[in-house]
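Reviewer 2 asked us to include a model.

Predict the structure of this chain.
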Amino acid sequence: MVKGNMTRNDWLRLASVVIVFCGSLALLYPFWPLKAVIPLGLDLQGGVRLVLQAKATEGMSADQKRDTLDKIVTILSNRVDQYGMANAEIKRLGTDRVLVNVPGTTNPEEARRLIGQTAMLEFRKVIEAGTTPNSDLVPTSTAQEVLRDREGIPYIVESEALLSGAALSDARVRVSQSVQQAGQMYIALSFSQDGAQQFVKALNQLKVDDRLAIVLDGIVYSAPRITDSIKQAAAQGWRQVQNETTITGRFTRDEATRIGIVLRAGALPVAVEPIEEVTVGPTLGSDSVRRGMITIVAGFAITLIYMTIYYRTMGLAADCALVLNMLIMFAALRLFHATLTLPGIAGIVLTIGMSVDANVVINERIKEQRRAGKAPLAAVKAGFAMSVSALVDANLTNLIVAVILLLVGTGPVKGFAITLGIGVVGSLYAAYVLCRLLQEKTPLGRHIPVRVSSPEN
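Predicted model (structure tokens):
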């Protein structure tokens, strides 16, 4: 039932509410489970938190350190995105550290390997190869050094690399189709044009039956012999060798996938070392989600009941505004791909209180006007007009605090700031658009629970 005539502004307000309401429902589908709707943080679904220390940065200037850390963040972000670790948070921490939060990972050890690997790929000439881990090989000059493969077998290689991983353009996991190695995983390397030209130059420095070690982070993964066919291909130009190099080594699928990813993403500019590691179990995370949701639902339900009891039909209008604000809150988190954390849940609970606070201020102003003898509709309009300055001032300060926390805070603090900021904007919109529309244009604002001290105007 509509009370009074609907003006053009009223229809616009109604249309905006319908759009916001329907849009929020569409964004939140399928509504449950929560992690299928909104990404959950490390504290809510478990995972791994790492703090990485960048090495060899002591002699760098402040700008060089910042640039180095930015490169590390970019490379690690590419790695976790390609690996499928969703909602990872990677950012600079101080002047020489990087914070990595990987929520929801089911294999923490694999995450540590993926994130911590430098991925320094080199191609080095083999001087001598051992046959067992106990082979005693000694370099004959300072231009040589001993490296070992994953089984501990030593290789004497030249210290200076013939080619680096910077020459690569791609690295893909393949399954061998040969009879001898059927089903085994290997990594097919592709060079850029410049890289392939450098590879041809390196091959021209080697002879048939020389061995070329493929070294990743100081470990020899394979050391194939130079064949006459690859020498002939090199003689025909860079295109003939661009896609002809592979890394073998009895890989599992996960290991081959990880190595391929780190090679595609590129090598870190400096080595990194984990100095802090926290693994959050899924049991703790699910318990936090359950307790957090109980807190939100309980606070929400109690607030709805209280407002209805105390303000009667005016309370029902406030309840509708609160419901809309909660929809706006969760829909905004989904829309902006924000991650919900435990402090974020605290921000949602605080938002419930802020929404109620706005409606309490408005309803008390309406009651004051009604006590002064104004008619219900006039009291409603006057109450909303008189509460604007107080609510805008109060919520503006909250919004400023939320922005400051978002700019300078760390992960958990940012989660709180995001929900707080969304809640401030949503509560004002719900109060001054939906609640006002309901109280001015429906019977919900007709019965104001006060005693009138003078006749109605």
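DSSP finds 13 helices and 13 strands in the chain. The longest strand covers residues 121-129. We have added this to the supplementary material.
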